[in-house]
Amino acid sequence: MLLNTIERGPENGDLSHPPVVFLHGLFGQARNFGFFQRRMAATRRTLALDLRNHGGSPHGMMDYPTMAMDVHETLVAHSALPAMVIGHSMGGKTAMMLALNHPNAVHSLIVADIAPGEGGFAQSRQLAHDLAALPLPDYLDRAGAEAWLGQVITDPPVRDLMLMNLELGEKPRWRIGLQQIAASMSAIIGWPPIVPGVHYNGPTLFIAGGNSRYIQPASYPAMRRLFPHYRLETIREAGHWVHAQAPAAFLALVQGFMDSGHGGEA
User: Which residues, if any, are the signal sequence (predicted)?
Assistant: First the structure.
């Protein structure tokens, strides 16, 4: 499946470095990384992808091997391999699976607040099913949509996130593949078995939110086994949405990772 892609690059067309690829989290979209893409596009070719069932990409059932295949197929079509891949949450799991299944396609890897293994998204499972069961009215403006979503979402930031996935007006509709997401939540929460001995040898940075519980010490053995050259950094003031809650600190860690040589020559 070819994914909808937002591409930005330097005006001078410098392609001496591997492109940078951004993969968003559950219920997100490519433009969630817009701040970072604009900053990095001054010197790098950048591509932000809408994962399947999100943004402008096609819909279908989801699991991480399939989503990693989507990303690989899309980057091949854009002649954007090998790439430095940055993924948050569900996008981080997809990025890890891409690195494990196609190690030559991933120059280096940054995973934001998620670990390789089952976990995370517990509240999202119920949210996906509640939203899928909520009948759409004949008309919605923004105020009406906020009230409509408020029936199942009490947290304003989450409500704002879901508003971005609604097409308002007459006969409103979900832009995302909500039914497919709800049906795939077990796979999204889960993590497929990895063949013993399979690992990614490239440089890997995990960035955790200090107020998040998505990366725990219990995850470290799997992180070391699958990504033996990983490093873990924590942004203490951030939660799970680490890049949105502490953008300057997140950008500094990414830039430091790149400046240390892990962003490397193409």
Answer: none
Q: Write the CA distances from 175 to 68, 133, 162, 167, integer angstroms.
A: 22, 16, 10, 6
Q: Specify the DSSP class assigned to residue 259.
A: I
Looking at domain 5-119+190-262, its CATH class is alpha beta
**pLDDT given at position 155:** 85
Q: What are phi and psi of 79, to 5 degrees?
A: 50, 50
Residue ranges in the chain assigned as alpha helix (H): 34-40, 64-77, 90-101, 122-132, 142-149, 156-163, 178-183, 185-189, 220-226, 242-245, 247-257
Q: Is 16 exposed, middle or buried (0-12, 13-18, 19+ CB in 10 A)?
A: exposed
**The pLDDT value given to residue 266:** 43
- Residue in the structure block whose two tokens are 């799997």: 222
pLDDT at 124: 80
The two three-digit tokens of residue 137, written as one number: 């009215």
For residue 74, the SS3 value is helix
Nearest to 111 by CA among 243, 259, 244: 243
The ranges of the chain with pLDDT < 50 are: 265-266
Q: What is the pLDDT of residue 231?
A: 97
Helix 156-163 vs helix 142-149: crossing angle, to nearest 10: 130
- Give pTM, 2 decimals: 0.94
Tokens of 265: 């020559």
Domain boundaries, the chain: 5-119+190-262, 122-183
